[in-house]
Write a structure and sequence with these properties.
mainly alpha; 3 helices; two-stranded parallel sheet; 2 domains; 6% strand
Length: 102
């Protein structure tokens, strides 16, 4: 179970991700350039991912591969962020739809 500080941070990141998403929805109906839209998409996704990783499993970040994830990239990010062996990492044996495994 994550400590209260981790829960508070995850909750904050989730609220901020929702805010970025709300901004994005409003921008979709405007003449805002694609790069500005892309920025808010990236911010919402990044904060959402960080909040999910904060909760983790047994007090450690946890990743389970989805259909479009790049597990090699996620693995490198986790190793750089929290160090080798300090996270849970599960990859799928199902088809990866063109996403490289390394």
């Amino acid at each position: 179970m994550p400590n209260p500080d981790a829960r508070e941070l995850a909750s904050l990141l989730q609220r901020k991700a929702a805010g970025d998403e709300a901004i994005l929805v409003k921008l979709l109906d405007s003449d805002v350039p694609d790069d500005a839209l892309g920025f808010h998409v990236q911010q919402a996704v990044e904060k959402g991912m960080k909040s999910a990783i904060r909760f983790g499993c047994d007090g450690k970040p946890s990743f389970t591969q989805g259909s479009y994830d790049d597990p090699g990239r996620v693995l490198r990010t986790l190793e750089e962020s929290v160090g080798s062996g300090n996270f849970h990492f599960t990859v799928s044996t199902a088809p990866h739809y063109g996403v490289p495994l390394g």
